[in-house]
Amino acid sequence: MIVVKIIILIFFSLIYSQQINFKLDTVSTKLNQPWGIEFLDDNNILITERNGQLLNFREDSIIYIKGIPEISNYGQGGLLDIKKHPDFKKNNFIYFTATPKEKDIVGTALFRSVLENDSLKSVEKLFQAEFYQPTGVHFGSRIAIDNEGFIYVSFGDGGTPASAQDLSNHNGTIIRLTLSGDVPNDNPFIDSTHAKAEIWSYGHRNVQGLAINPLTNEIWSHEHGPKGGDEINIIKKGINYGWPLATFGINYDGTIISKDTSIVGAADPLYYWTPSIAPCGMNFYNSSSIPNWNGSLFLGALAGKHLNRIYIKGEAIYEERLLSNMARFRQVIQGSDGWLYFITEKPGLLCRISMNELSVFNNSAPKDFNLHDNFPNPFNSSTRINFSNLYKGEFKLSIFNLLGYEIQSYVINGSQSSFHSITWNGADSKGNKVPGGIYFYKLHNDKMSITKKMILLK
């Protein structure tokens, strides 16, 4: 077992998103072409690297997992996505996709293995894609497991666009298998003599984002367009998604691929990008740890070099771009702690986004202290903070920003009255107006301290 010590939380910064500030921690700068990430539990994070390394981040160490089958990183191939079995705690199964180094085989395969003592045991190849005329590009690949116990794996068109409409190979498809690698009896082409039984959907260019919507159990995907025409789709049984017969993109040399952006018999994208952002990796955020992002869809952008947030209000789809020009974002995932994690290349990073809340060391107030719930939250510049106490002494009301700096304070003489009402005007101690966002007010003296969070509107 090889263990490399790393430094946790190398730096942090603040992200400004819809009037809310968030903290960005860099967990590691040691990654080399990372592709997939999976949380086993609170203390173990698996990350694949395309060169064939599987890393386990455990507390302050990187452990290199042994027993990886021989991998070919020919072209865009290599060790790709990774996902744990829904009953991992009982069986220690993990799944991963890779392009195996085997004679006369160029294509993506799905593997299953037991992870035991930092080594892969009983490695099985559950499925090998049959690629038509592979060119070294567009291998996919992402893995998703639904609530019914089926596993979905995406494959690119292998660089031969027309093959994505040919069901006799696996180019440009998403397949569906049982967790044991068998073909389900209700797959759409199970009885066809001209189609691969594993296929669930087809007509894809290169799907590198696949996620299960936790609210609907729908399968969402995104795929690379050529020059323009990146897409988000909701994947349905047996549906053709049009590539290359319909696309919003053009060839890299500017020539036309198709005059059609929509055709009869194929599904239109839910959302698309022109120009391309080169989306990669995708997951839903389903946690109240960052309330404003709960229910959002996050994906990385390779060419766009940003973290992309998609959210829906009514029938409208909105997009927010975060951390622009930071790196090539390869995958994003919700951690077991409820925060958002992502991996990047150029530079190779593992990062975490969390809410930057003020630490409260003493939040005990005497029994005679009452913080009246008669003020609104969010706050504005005329909101009053009301409280009463029977203790006859001096209090201080401090306003803190998310970095924990005191930006404003008021001294309250408790001997004059048992009821107090303070108005913060939304300015710092120098009179400068502060931006909207999350702040904290703290009522304290040498005997007690109580801290509350507020949202300042601007």
Description:
The protein is mainly β and 458 residues long. The chain folds into two domains: 2-355, 6 Propeller (Neuraminidase); 370-456, Immunoglobulin-like (Sandwich). 1% of the residues lie in helices and 43% in strands. It is built from one helix and 33 strands. It has one helix at residues 88-91; strands spanning 2-5, 12-17, 20-28, 34-39, 44-49, 54-58, 61-64, 79-84, 93-98, 109-116, 119-128, 143-145, 150-154, 174-178, 199-201, 207-212, 219-223, 230-235, 271-273, 279-284, 297-301, 306-313, 316-322, 328-334, 340-345, 349-355, 370-371, 384-388, 394-400, 406-413, 419-423, 437-444, 449-456. A five-stranded antiparallel β-sheet has the order 1-7-6-5-4, with no helix packed on it. The N and C termini lie far apart (54 Å). The model is unreliable at 1-14 and 358-365 (pLDDT under 50).
Secondary structure: number of strands: 33
Average pLDDT metric: 86
How far apart, in Å, are the first and last alpha carbons? 54 Å
- What's the number of structural domains? 2
Continuous helix count: 1
The main pleated sheet reads as: 5 strands, antiparallel
Q: Going across the major beta sheet, what is the strand order?
A: 1-7-6-5-4
- CATH topology annotation of the largest domain: Neuraminidase
Beta-strand share of residues: 35-45%
Radius of gyration using CA atoms only: 26 Å
Shape: elongated
What's the level 1 CATH class of the largest domain?
Mainly Beta
